[in-house]
Amino acid sequence: MNLEEFNQELLETNSETERSHFIKKYFFHGTPKVFHDKEHEYFEFRNKIADNFNIGFHEVFIVGSAKFGFSYHKGTLFSYDSDIDVVIVNERLFDSYFTEICDYQYKLDRLYKSIDLRERKMYSEFLRYLVKGWMRPDKLPTSFKVDLLKKEWTDFFQSLSYNKSEVGNYKVTGALYKNYTYLEKYYLRNMEEYYQKLKMV
């Protein structure tokens, strides 16, 4: 499927239910373009991430341009300048990170921790995602990254990047969703906006 075919099939949907079906079919099913004809390597890549976080490999997805071979938002093709966007969906893992973030917030409230204005802006953006049921660890303040995620998250995904794993010479990034409901809700809202944009063209 190319971008034109993607857009055409999306435009042929007539309801939110049909667009939800579209998302399930194309976003979270099948082998990503970056692993075309390399299903076994895709399994090993997912399983490596799953083993690191002690979750099921079926809870690990690749999304974005690496999934489709193009970015529908940017209208560009997947290339070596593109990132590999990994999504993890696991409630236990999400809750474990949330507990640490909660403790960090209490330290901020009690002034045991301090962050500058730039980091506070980053943290506000992080919290905006968090209330929607997912987290972007790269949006945490630098000090918090060191305390919590330096070894458990950031370093791990760096260890998969640039020819250090089955995916090849790309930067690998990760996002964590509480459960599949939040994952689908995020992409459905995203797709509704894109659908409306296409209708206006």
Verbal overview:
- The protein has 201 residues and is of the alpha+beta class.
- The chain has one domain.
- Helix content is 55%, strand content 12%.
- The chain contains eight helices and six strands.
- The strands form two sheets. A four-stranded mixed β-sheet has the order 1-4-6-5.
- A hairpin with a 4-residue loop joins strand 2 and strand 3.
- The radius of gyration is 18 Å and the shape is globular.
Question: What are the salient characteristics of this protein?
Answer:
201 residues, two-stranded antiparallel ribbon, 8 helices, 6 strands, four-stranded mixed sheet, alpha+beta
Strand order of the largest sheet: 1-4-6-5
> Structurally, how many domains make up the residues?
1
Whole-number mean pLDDT: 92
The low-pLDDT segments are none
- The number of helices is 8
Query: Rough shape?
Result: globular
Q: Name the helicity range.
A: 40-55%
Number of strands: 6
User: Approximately what portion of the residues adopt beta-strand conformation?
Assistant: 5-15%
| Main beta-sheet annotation | 4 strands, mixed
Q: Rg, please?
A: 18 Å
Termini separation comes to 21 Å
SSE order: HHHEHEEEHHEHEH
Category by helix and strand content:
alpha+beta
